[in-house]
TrEMBL record:
Residues 121-260 form the N-acetyltransferase domain. Pfam families: Acetyltransf_1. The keyword Isomerase does not apply. This is GNAT superfamily N-acetyltransferase. Coiled coil: none annotated. Keywords: Transferase. SUPFAM superfamilies: Acyl-CoA N-acyltransferases (Nat). One of its GO terms (molecular function) is acyltransferase activity, transferring groups other than amino-acyl groups. Gene3D superfamilies: 3.40.630.30.
């Protein structure tokens, strides 16, 4: 159920954050009703386009096709992200333009309910200079591939953002000190998005993801930031609700279908 008291001010603050957050790692280009974010480091995670901040007119399938053509022409992924309650016409327009759309729950913290770290594990914030930082990021990456096999640690970009306090990283470790997962949040002003929470498959079902979420949330609150996040599955929503998050809307992620 969506929290019906999430008003325009709350959604407006989320929109401002979502427009601002990618600008720390990207340049922006305008295309019709969209802002297209392009990574300034080609090795980084690919970005997307989203509705221009403050844009309130209906979006048409033709405008969606134009931004997809623009993304194709400049060599970036054909992808859109937006908040459905703010731009409701984009969902049918994206689907009519041939995009696949994933609808995720958008949640903000209500009453924080800290949880305990499960026995046999420890979860804590990482520093940019910690030798395990790269390994924690590799564990998060492996978790999103549903694999226990971690790739080589690569953390140069993330360490720069950590030093600038644009990224806060939390790692989870077993009793031998091996990373088993982690997560992060991305402060911008008084808001921060909690992202990338993942646990290696061999360690799932033990409450580690909940503990990671709890530590990230507590860290954000101590620094005066209000956290929010999105969740693609009901099981993920349940984890976040345990910590005190409540649904306030729908985050949409659209990708272009492969053309035959």
């Amino acid at each position: 159920m969506i929290d019906t008291h999430a008003g325009e001010d709350e959604l407006g603050s989320l929109e401002r954050y979502l427009d601002l957050a990618p600008r720390a790692v990207a340049v922006s280009r305008e295309c019709g009703p969209f802002t297209v974010f392009v990574r300034d480091n080609p090795r980084g995670h690919p970005l997307y386009a989203r509705p221009r901040l403050g844009y309130s007119r209906p979006v048409s399938p033709e405008e969606v096709r134009r931004v997809l053509d623009f993304q194709r022409a400049i060599g970036v992924p054909r992808a859109l992200e937006w908040v459905h309650e703010t731009t409701p016409t984009l969902l049918p327009a994206a689907r009519e333009a041939g995009m696949s759309v994933q609808e995720c729950a958008l949640l903000r913290l209500g009453r924080f309910a800290p949880t305990e770290t499960p026995t046999g594990y420890r979860v804590h914030e990482m520093t940019a200079d910690d030798p395990q930082t790269g390994a924690v990021l590799a564990a998060i990456d492996a978790s999103f591939r549903d694999s226990d096999r971690m790739g080589p640690p690569e953390s140069s970009e993330q360490k720069l953002r950590m030093r600038a306090r644009l990224l806060v990283l939390v790692g989870a470790f077993d009793t031998l000190g091996r990373p088993v997962g982690g997560g992060m949040h991305n402060p911008r002003g008084d808001l921060t998005e909690v992202t990338g929470i993942g646990t290696l498959p061999a360690h799932r079902g033990r409450g580690i993801g909940t503990a990671i979420t709890s530590i990230l949330t507590g860290t954000a609150l101590r620094e005066g930031q209000s956290p929010f996040l999105s969740a693609a599955t009901r099981s993920a929503v349940s984890v976040y609700e345990t910590v005190g998050y409540a649904r306030v809307g729908t985050a949409c992620i659209a990708t272009e279908n492969e053309r035959g």
